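Quick illustration, no need to memorize.
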Amino acid sequence: MAEARRALPDADMAIADLTPNQKKTASISTQNGMAVHATTKHVERSLMVIDLLQNDKQFHDLTMYGIAGKHYEPVGDDKFKPGASQANFTGFSYWGWNSALNRTDASYPQEATNMEADWKKKVYHYPLETFVFDDQKVKNEMASIGNVMLRYGVPLEYGLVPDLEKGQAELIKQLKVAGIDKVQAELQSQIDAFLAGK
């Protein structure tokens, strides 16, 4: 909308929430896209870099937006305008260290900001949103189920099985052979323990 308003200043535009009365969901567990590899020799140094990128305003602005006055123009502490060379500062995934220091494009529509604020009040937190399944007790079954899904499930999904009922019955049969009941029982056990601990 901001780009359209710049390109067509005389056009009348609006943003609408197509589901104003619905609950909203939010991903709470990921925060960002950064991770430290399991074989990293100096984990603490890697975490220090991530911390620096997320929490040091100077480094954050430099990596997120480029050189001030060239790639972007700061507007206060939390907004920016594109600089003359903004197009030359692209090509990598800096979203990995999103943080509270992120700036918003100064041309970002106020209507969108208002809508986001309203959505935050409507976020629904599912009872299992922080649950993580530990598959240690059913590793073999999980691997077998994965193979069954590749062999029998994917052809069904792509419509490659002429007799759908027969294909579905075969998929269910193979999933049972692979141990899906054991996986479901383990999953339910962990869910029950998780919910009891909340």
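The helical segments are 2-7, 43-55, 57-65, 110-121, 139-157, 164-178, 180-196.
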